[in-house]
Specification:
Keywords: Membrane, Transmembrane, Transmembrane helix. The chain is mainly alpha-helical. 83% of the residues lie in helices and 0% in strands.
C-alpha cells in the first residue's frame, strides 16, 4: 500500500471511531445504556442516535442527581 492509501485508511478508522464514541459518551452522560446505544448506532446511524439522545435527554435518575449536586 502506498502512503495515500494508508492515510485514507487511518482517516476512515478515525472517523468510524469518532462516530461510535460520540453517541456512547452522550448516552453515558445522560444515564442511558451505552451498549444499547452503541448497537443502535451500528444498526441505524450515528446522526440518528445523536438526535434521539438529544431529544430524550437525561433519565429521571440522572436529572435528579444533577439537581442534588447544585
Amino acid at each position: 500500500m502506498d502512503a495515500t492509501a494508508v492515510l485514507l485508511l487511518v482517516m476512515v478508522i478515525f472517523l468510524f471511531w469518532i462516530s461510535i464514541w460520540v453517541p456512547a459518551t452522550m448516552a453515558a452522560e445522560r444515564g442511558r445504556s451505552v451498549f444499547g446505544w452503541l448497537l443502535l448506532t451500528l444498526f441505524f446511524s450515528p446522526m440518528i442516535t445523536i438526535i434521539a439522545l438529544l431529544v430524550l435527554g437525561p433519565t429521571v435518575e440522572k436529572a435528579l442527581e444533577r439537581m442534588h449536586r447544585r
